[in-house]
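# step 3/5: fold
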Amino acid sequence: MDKINFHTHSTFCDGKNTPEEMILSAIEKGFSVLGISGHSMFPFAEDWHIAPNNFQNYISEISRLKEKYSDKIKIFCGFEADYFPCVTCPDKAAYSDLKPDYLIGSVHYVTKNGKHYSVDHKTEFVKQGIDNLYNGDGKQAVIDYFEAQKEMLTKGSFDILGHPDLIRKRNNELKFFDITESWYKDLLKDFARAVAKAGVIAEINTGGKARGNTEDFYPSDFLLELFYNAGIPVCINTDAHTIDLLDFGYEEAVQLAKKTGYKELIYPCIGSVKI
């Protein structure tokens, strides 16, 4: 089976390796396709996004590398585009001038009453966000996170839904909600219906486990089963920020997809890949 990865980061955002280093590692690890997906809040940026004055340099460099390594690997240029209400949205029309090959739509920020926090920030900052915005009400924080994703699915236009339950990232440490409770399972069922309606690809993202934040992948096994039952296509991505994690958990994720019932993976620009 071809190894394909559409969710990777480089030194253009918060990655630790250059795009060329990522590509050379992908070739060495046996990938046939690699997508570089720099963090983006186009036309804005936080310090871990591609800087506004660097977008064209990013596009130009990935284009150069596409050509340079075209006989060894297929390279695609994309963005992991943030949804931030009233500021930026992963929408193909908004990114049309940059002509990316694909967009990953992700929610990292949750806003409430004019304030915001990042759900995958350092543990202490996530705790501060939940305390300050929700008076410690973890359940409402989780509800608002999934509401933000549903808004993104409605308002945006993108190819891949990034790390669908990222809100779990700091839950092992903070324990601000219980994933076994009925309200949470009902929330995921409603979310799966929204994903199916939007017609996007959901990724199986190995990044949480790779960095020791979760014991499993995004989405959880329960949410992945909901995706399968709702007819939602999936792909496998590692969300790698370094070359050493470029293929972390890849084969394990393939086996999980097969166990769930999937017989193929779907990727933008590529189409279906049998598993």
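# step 4/5: annotate
The chain is about 35% helix and 20% strand.
# step 5/5: archive (pending)
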